[in-house]
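User: Here's a chain of 50 residues. Predict its fold as tokens.
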Amino acid sequence: MRPGTIASVYLESVDDVENYKEVFDDLSARALDPSETRIQITQIIKELQQ
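Assistant: Prediction complete.
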């Protein structure tokens, strides 16, 4: 868990919302696009079948 995050379902504080927005933006930037994800999963499956 990222420092400063809380395990709350409801975020009322502007700082909390901003913190989670930054986490979400970071994860979104790191995520593969759907095509790259399919390629990655296919490669992993092939490796596991060997």
